[in-house]
Amino acid sequence: MNRACFRALPTKTFPLPTFKRLTVTKKTSTTAEKPVNFAQAPINAALTAAQKVDLFRTMVRIRRFEERSLRAYQGKKIGGFLHLYIGQEAVAVGCCSLMGKDDHVITAYRDHGHAIAVGMELNPLMAELYGKATGCSKGKGGSMHYFAPDKNYWGGHGIVGGQIPLGAGLAYAVKYQGKKGAAMAFMGDGAVNQGAVHEAYNLAALWKLPVIFVIENNGYSMGTSQARSSAGTLAKRAEGYDMAWGQCNGADVYEVRATMDRFLKLAHEKHEPAIVEIDTYRYRGHSVADPDNTYRTKAEIEEYRNNKDPIQLFQKTLLAEGVLTEATAAKIDEEARAESDHAADFAEASPFPTAADIQTDVYWEADHPAERKSQGRLFFE
Question: CA distances (Å), 272 to each of 7, 265, 277, 292, in order?
Answer without folding.
Answer: 27, 9, 17, 39
